[in-house]
Amino acid sequence: MSDRQQGLVDTLLPEIGIPAAGAIDPSSLLPGKSAHILEIGFGGGEHLTGQAARNPQTGYLGVEPFINGVAKALSQIDDGGLGNVRLMEGDARDVMERMPDQCLERIFLLFPDPWPKAKHAKRRFVQTETAAEFVRLLKPGGMVRVATDVKAYADHALWVLRQAPHLEWKANSYADWRTPPVDHLTTRYETKRLGDCAPVFFDFIRV
């Protein structure tokens, strides 16, 4: 981290941090917002902060396991004067379980660690249990978007999400999941094309 990033971790993160313990209510953390969105594993923060800048009336919560990613996002928040973002360094599963039912309009999980080996598949973020949490947290009509450029993860995530009660995949053609959604913001990771397939985007609606 740069000296500036370390300074923001020391000063800005405590001001906009998601509580490390206790209940987490997005509408209390970001009051007066028309919608609340969670991004899981936001990496360098380009998508999270870009969406927040585009939609100042929406509240964004981001959880990232690596402090360097948090520091990069803090720099973007500081540069943009963004007051509609809250961050945490940690495991998003811990954050999700402390949120109330039907508190989110959207959940983003973009290019997560694919854990490509079969013996590591249980470590992937998309599992039956997390899919059930997506359902619990989303308001009716809300959406979870999972994007990946690893075929094994795409197959795994699609199977799990299609089994989840109350999640509906409305894709009707290849273009519906092979073409980036109109509101998508490309990240630096995505442009590196480190996976083994072109990026795919699965949008599931809470019904």
What would the keywords be for this entry?
globular; Rossmann fold; 207 residues; 7-stranded mixed sheet; 9 helices; alpha/beta; 7 strands
Please write out the topology.
Blueprint: H1 3-16, H2 26-29, E1 35-40, H3 46-54, E2 58-64, H4 67-80, E3 85-89, H5 92-97, E4 104-110, H6 128-137, E5 138-148, H7 151-163, E6 167-169, H8 175-178, H9 188-192, E7 200-206
Parallel strand pairs: 1-2, 1-4, 2-3, 4-5
Antiparallel strand pairs: 5-7, 6-7
Helix pairs in contact: 1-4, 3-4
Short description:
With 207 residues, the chain is an alpha/beta fold. Helices cover 38% and strands 22% of the residues.
Major beta sheet summary? 7 strands, mixed
The CATH topology label is: Rossmann fold
SSE class: alpha/beta
Please work out how many helical segments DSSP would assign. Answer: 9
Low-confidence stretches: none
**Shape type:** globular
The Cα radius of gyration reads 16 Å
Average pLDDT figure? 94
Query: From the coordinates shown, what is the CATH architecture?
Result: 3-Layer(aba) Sandwich
CATH class: Alpha Beta
- Distance from first to last alpha carbon: 43 Å
Number of strands: 7
Read across the widest sheet, the strand sequence of neighbours is 3-2-1-4-5-7-6
